[in-house]
Amino acid sequence: MTIALLVAVVVFTSVFGFLNGFRDASNAVGLTVRTRALTPSIAVVLAAVFNVIGTVTSAWLLNYFGGSWVTAPDGARGLVVLLATVVSASLWNVYLWWRGYPSSSTHALVGGLVGASLAEVLLGHALQNGLANLLWLQVWLPLLISPLLAFGAAFFLTSFTTWIARYSQPSQAHATLRAAQSVGTAAVAFGHGLQDGQRIIAVLVVAAIGNQTDWTAIPGWIVGVAALTLGIGTLAGGWRVTYTLSHRLIRTDPLRGFVSQLVTTLMLFFGALWLKWPLSTTHTVAASILGAGSNQSYAAVNGRLLTRLVAFWIATPLAAALLGLVLALALDPFAR
Q: pLDDT band at residue 129, thresholds of 50, 70 and 90?
């Protein structure tokens, strides 16, 4: 039974990785396609390649920083917790993709893990240490800080970039900025792989080996599975979410698209390399798009859509936790 549970965790973690790339492809390619800096096919291939490179690099980050917040009980019980976690996160991600709303895969994963861990308590097992800190440091604090920081940075950087380009002909400035957006697509995709690749690798390591204090020897097959699933998911492309970000949410142009990508890239690298926070690519991209787009002389933001978007961001960890709790209780007989 333990082997069957391990196989199930690997399979559904791969599904989660695929959905992660599938949905979050929009974060890297949406603005670039909207401003016609790249064709959709080239943008998606570029994003997939750099997502894979970022995921492979994220294994080095786990090695270098020596840790992850993903923990689970030992043995079959731990595999049930991880299985409930990735299945609940995947189900919620599919639901929001179908609705066309971008949300954080990381926050869904954390919510599922917390819910599955609480199910262990209801079944009479010991509470995993650090659940409150996990929710605060990995979900609510980044959710409060990263969108506000991304919005503010993009808003003011738009004014600065406009001032720099004030003597350029619009056609010349847009051509230069479209070329910069091509680089920005690769950078955002790399930052996404750097952030989200760590989560997929960590789940697989905990499932296959157990809770780790030493991350210096991550099996190559785990890195390969994480990189492959993210890359294939990106190639598949979640155009429902792309349309929401690049057409429905706000009006944009090459200058504001460039600013959004620059802010997103800097924040993802800053969060991964210095703060070691799981900053959401989705939240950062959406907030930077809003910040750059709001710095215009005419109304550009779809306020009603923005309200629903924020509501789903808040609901994501809560809904995933509820799903994780229910699934962990339902799967408990397999852990006995």
A: low
Tokens 């799981």 found at: 278
In this structure, what token pair is assigned to residue 257? 């698209």
The kind and range of the H/E element at 251 are none
Q: Beta partners for 250?
A: 301
Q: pLDDT tens for residues 183-225?
A: 888 888 888 888 888 889 989 988 888 776 666 778 889 999 9
Specify the 3-state DSSP secondary structure of 250.
strand
Cβ atoms of 77 and 120 within 8 Å: the answer is yes
Q: What is the mean pLDDT of the chain?
A: 82
**Segment 253-273, tens digit of pLDDT:** 788 888 888 888 888 877 666
Alpha-carbon gap, residue 205 to 210, rounded angstroms: 7
Cα–Cα distance, 195 to 283 (Å, whole number) = 13
* SS3 per-residue string spanning 39-64: CHHHHHHHHHHHHHHHHHHHHHHHHH
| 288 close to 71: Cβ distance less than 8 angstroms | no
Query: Residues 6 or more apart from 36 whose CB is under 8 A from it?
Result: 178
Taking Cα atoms as reference points, which of 57, 45, 111 lies closest to residue 268?
Answer: 57
DSSP code string of 270-327 = HIIIII-----HHHHHHHHHHHHHHSSSS--B-HHHHHHHHHHHHHHHHHHHHHHHHH
- CA 266 to mean position of chain CA atoms: 15
Neighbours of 125 (CB within 10 A): 15
Is residue 143 within 8 Å of residue 283, measured between CB atoms? Answer: yes
Instruction: Supply angle C-alpha 238, 243, 244, rounded to 5.
Output: 105
Query: Is there a contact between 40 and 33 (Cβ–Cβ < 8 Å)?
Result: yes
**pLDDT at 234 (0 to 100):** 87
The Cα 67–Cα 23 span in angstroms is: 27
Q: DSSP labels for 76-132?
A: HHHHHHHHHHHHHHHHHHHHHHHHT----HHHHHHHHHHHHHHHHHHTTPPPPTTHH
Helix or strand run (H / E) with residue 183: helix 170-208
